[in-house]
Amino acid sequence: MRDRMIVYFPTELLKQISDLADRKKLSRSAIVEAAVASFLSPDGSDRREAAFTRRLDRLSRQMQRLERDVGLTAETLALFTRFWLTITPPLPNDAQAAAAVEGQGAL
């Protein structure tokens, strides 16, 4: 047996309930009943905590991958710079002064 209860909702909330009922092809009473049952269920907070834990774990793994990728990128750049410096011959003494003047003009 079901008891009747009269509940008043704000217009916007009632519109959302009606839209959801239309999409799910359920009655508005069924939508409200499911929402109240979910709110009153003792394991509701456990499910929310599990969802937060999964999301935080996913974010932690993403941050670890980013940290690893940034480290690899920095190491690759350092190796390239070291290699480039070892294979590039130094400028002759007369060209060093011109390069210094040109470098000062770029700033």
Describe the structure in your own words.
- 79% of the residues lie in helices and 0% in strands.
- By secondary structure, the protein is mainly α.
- The radius of gyration is 33 Å and the shape is rod-shaped.
- The termini are far apart.
- 0% of the residues are buried.
- The mean pLDDT is 89.
Residue ranges: pLDDT <50 for 5 or more in a row? Answer: none
Share of residues in strands: under 5%
In total, the number of strands is 0
* Annotation field: number of helices: 4
Task: Give helix % range.
Answer: over 70%
N-to-C SSE series? HHHH
Shape: rod-shaped
Radius of gyration: 33 Å
Structural class: mainly alpha
Query: Distance N terminus to C terminus?
Result: 84 Å
Which features does this protein show?
107 residues, mainly alpha, 4 helices
In short, what is this structure?
With 107 residues, this protein is an all-alpha fold. It is built from 4 helices and no strands.
